[in-house]
Amino acid sequence: MAEFTMELNEDQRGVRDWIHGFAAEVMRPAAAEWDEREEFPWPVVQEAARIGLYSLDFYAQQFFDPTGLGIPMAMEELFWGDAGLGLAITGTGLAAIGVLTNGTEEQIGTWLPQMYGDAADVKIAAFCSSEPDAGSDVSAMRTRAVYDEAKDEWVLNGTKTWATNGGIANVHVVVAVVDPELGARGHASFIVPPGTPGLSQGQKFKKHGIRASHTAEVVLDGVRLPGHCLLGGKDKLDERLARARERARTGGARTQNAAMATFEASRPTVGAQAVGIARAAYEVALDYAQTRVQFGRPVIDNQGVAFQLADMRTRIDAARLLVWRASWMATAGKPFTSAEGSMSKLFAGETAKAVTAQAMQILGGNGYTREYPVERMHRDAAIYTIFEGTSEIQRLVIARTISDVPIR
Ligand SMILES: Cc1cc2nc3c(=O)[nH]c(=O)nc-3n(C[C@H](O)[C@H](O)[C@H](O)COP(=O)(O)OP(=O)(O)OC[C@H]3O[C@@H](n4cnc5c(N)ncnc54)[C@H](O)[C@@H]3O)c2cc1C
User: Fold this and answer.
1) Are residues 195 and 102 in the same domain?
2) pLDDT at 170
3) Has residue 350 been placed in a domain?
4) Do 131 and 246 belong to one domain?
5) Both 142 and 182 in a single domain?
6) Distance in angstroms (rounded) separating the CA atoms of residues 104 and 407
7) What is the CA(192)–ligand 1 centre distance, in A?
8) CA of residue 97 to ligand 1 center, whole Å
9) Residue 131 a catalytic site member
């Protein structure tokens, strides 16, 4: 008989505690400094690589954990440490998932190791889908990939924006339009290998939060790529485009495009990051409320404060359960019939934003200063209702999935 448990097994607890140690001892003491510097924290990522935490092997091990909880558990602990540093350590994962979801075995074997490098020579990767006029509306994408059959090369032109690690990555995964007639179904993903001429970093953004994470435009100016850089290969693309053209002609059912498949696979992972930030802020607030004395008693003695903490903790646990369910479903191959991945990201993102705001309130004036970490956590949390699909887009996905109505 199948056994049901909601406890992590011994191996998982060991990994969680190991990551927690790194988060507490390496990330937390460095968090405020890198937030102020607003630069990519190479020494922290290098230290994570040195102990094997930033490595393809580690992510592969967690990714293939049969319970599905390896990745969310790791994410929660890292982002409990710090979100900006956490994103610097995990940002490569989005590009890696892009290759895992769309690439051939040979492409996975060639490019994933080059995305991470090794402890002696750490590398990072970037996933570039968003454009200045194509954020939530992926179908408005303009970056064009044109096939030069004589040379078996693809030529890419366009501007990508908001790319995490964009321009400083060793490997860029770029989504581009191969057939403009097909909208989002006419897209394909490409590997841009290290040092490819024509790819450059545009503006680097100064941000409200997650400031240790590098976010920039990526300009593609006549970038020529060998045919083997098309993820999935030309035959598979031709078959997919032929099916999409047939569907467009006959009005058949829609299917996910490459970029959407990548986002869908990573939503519970992003939700787990938000849970980590929320938990960190809640812990600071709980501790503060027990020690801060006003009117002759700790402020937690007031129901007005204690009930807020009760709500915060309840929301965090509920968010984690949604994240774990979605991660388990993905690993078990269960269909997301109610958009459970989007649900988990929606609820966890909103929870992080709300809980960090409550934590700031509980810390009063101290919460508003950079003497305490909740101010940074609140700034960091704000991105979790925006990137990887805004909260509105998650609601749209859920509403369409549960109703089968093409709600706008
Ligand atoms: C720090 C950071 C890192 C990022 N990293 C990456 C990355 O690595 N790779 C990448 O490709 N992208 C990345 N992004 C882009 C991110 O995914 C987009 O910002 C996000 O998808 C929203 O797009 P947008 O900013 O253009 O907002 P818009 O799409 O312009 O939306 C504006 C507002 O309108 C709402 N809205 C839009 N359409 C609808 C609708 N149909 N119904 C209801 N409301 C709607 C939105 O919810 C939002 O509130 C990153 C962004 C940031 C800020």
Assistant:
1) no
2) 98
3) yes
4) yes
5) yes
6) 35
7) 23
8) 19
9) no
Q: Are residues 61 and 130 in the same domain?
A: no
Range of the domain at 218: 125-250
Q: What CATH number has the domain bearing residue 234?
A: 2.40.110.10
Are 194 and 170 in contact by the 8 Å Cβ rule? The answer is: yes
Distances (CA, A) of 362 to 75, 287, 313: 26, 10, 14
Which residues are bridge partners to 144 per DSSP? 157, 177
In terms of Cβ atoms closer than 10 Å to its own Cβ (0-12, 13-18, 19+), residue 332 is: exposed
Is 24 a member of any domain? yes
Residue 366 inside a domain? The answer is yes
Q: Are 276 and 381 in contact (CB under 8 A)?
A: no
The alpha carbon of residue 402 and the mean position of all alpha carbons in its chain are separated, in whole angstroms, by 24
Q: What is the pTM of this model?
A: 0.96
Sign of the torsion formed by the C-alpha atoms of 128, 132, 137 and 143:
negative
Residues 361 and 383 both lie in one domain: yes
How many Cα atoms are found within 13 Å in the side-chain-facing hemisphere of 239? 5
Classify residue 83 as exposed, middle or buried by CB count within 10 Å of its CB (0-12, 13-18, 19+).
buried
CA of 162 relative to ligand 1 center, distance in Å = 9
Q: Relative to the CA of 396, which ligand 1 atom is closest?
A: 42
Do residues 106 and 243 share a domain? no
User: pLDDT digits over 322-334, tens only?
Assistant: 999 999 998 888 8
pLDDT tens per residue, range 150-183: 999 999 999 999 999 999 999 999 999 999 999 9
Residue 298 sits in a domain of what CATH number? 1.20.140.10
SS3 of 210, please? Answer: coil
Final residue belonging to a domain, choices 74, 99, 122: 122
Q: Which residues of the chain have pLDDT under 50?
A: 257
> What are 296-323's pLDDT values in tens digits?
999 999 999 999 999 999 999 999 999 9
pLDDT reported for residue 127: 96
Same domain, 241 and 313: no
pLDDT of residue 52: 97
Q: Kindly give, in sequence order, each residue whose CB lies less than 8 Å from that of residue 120, ignoring residues fewer than 6 positions away.
A: none
Residue at a domain's end among 106, 122, 138 = 122
**Whether residues 149 and 280 fall in one domain:** no
Ligand 1 atom closest to 389 (CA): 21
DSSP of 122-150: E--EEEE--BTTBSS-GGG---EEEEEGG
Q: Give the number of the atom of ligand 1 that is nearest the alpha carbon of residue 164.
A: 8
Asked if 200 and 168 count as a contact pair (C-beta separation under 8 A), the reply is no
Would strands 199-204 and 215-226 be described as parallel, antiparallel, or unpaired? antiparallel
Domain count, the chain: 3
What letter does residue 384 receive in the DSSP assignment? G
